[in-house]
Amino acid sequence: MVPMQVLKQFFNDIRRQRLRSALTMFGIFWGTCSIILLFAFGTGIKEAQLKSQKGMGENIAIVWPGITSKEYKGYPRGRRIIPTEDDVRLIKQRAQSVYRISPEFSKWNVTMKYGRNETIRNVVGVWPEFGDMRNLIPDYGSRFLNMYDLKEKRRVMFIGNRLKDDLFGEKDAVGKIVLLNGVPFTVIGVMKEKQQDSSYNGRDERKAFIPASTFNTMYSRRYLNDFVMQCYPDGSMEQAKKEVYQILGAKYRFDPNDTEALSIWDTTRGFAFLRAFFNAFQAFLVGIGVATLITGGIGVSNIMNVVLEERTKEIGIKMALGARKSTILMQFILETLLITGVGGLLGYLFASGIIAIIPMFGLEDYIGTPTVNVWGSILAIILLGIVGLVAGIFPARRAANLQPVQALKLF
To answer: Which terminus of the chain has a lower count of CB atoms within 10 Å, N or C?
Structure first.
């Protein structure tokens, strides 16, 4: 019967003090709503930024030529180290921590022509593994370069989506012949549009990719512009870089600890920084929501103290008729939990509604896709319980410790 009495008393209190109850519930409503929304938007923004960074590739490092900064076994410092395609093959054979690797030859200002459309773009010579490392995902009905293209030195090309639009417009590009400085190449694939916030040699959407063997046949390049390598998903890029320095150091006679002999951009460090930054940012946002919820809890505690003052005589009568302290205590705590529960439920539903309609505005590129996070919901429920319990325990103890005679004398 106690729960029914609590519910009845709860609704009676709300009817008597509609404005005060509404304002108190609003504090809990807004605190819960803030936690859910800030957690959802923080996660969405974090995922959107990481996705943009992954547009260039995940777990990769780009290696450029360098100049030795140390003397080593009689060799002077200041020697230029420029890797070749054979060096990339050597690393692929010997490095245990390198998952994928590809040389990268680059030729700027190449004239590309299809029909009457003509443009000047960058042409890159690579191995087939390059596409997987750099997230060059073929669009429907197309493909990236394969080993047969490389071995047979085929005149085929994979193009970025913006380059496709420049040359072909709305027409299908796969199977068409494009002239590269007058040399015919067959388009075998078009890159699926992707987000890419970082680059080192221009955006992939504007490039053309051809087999490295075909590139060397056309331009007779011995030295690489750079090479790209990828460590295993659960591996260490630091170990992979160490192996590269050791392998090439042994070949070119430079100190393996000379980090200036090769210039390496380790993108995994950037990912680690971004994750740490956005985790801290998300924690800050959730902290704001928690502070708002605590403020609402103070309001709940205040209203329960007011309720205690209004119902002192009622409590005295109940205790004179034999009501136990535990009954009075439990009644006040349950009423407090009901106030926080109703406010929290309304806040949760309101936040869920906002999160559901946000994708309709097409802001995924900026704020990602906010979702009602399971952990955020669990956090909100736990905090609601703690706030409700703490807000109700003090007025409940005061009510339970009232002496019947004193309570009746107050009125």
So the answer is: N
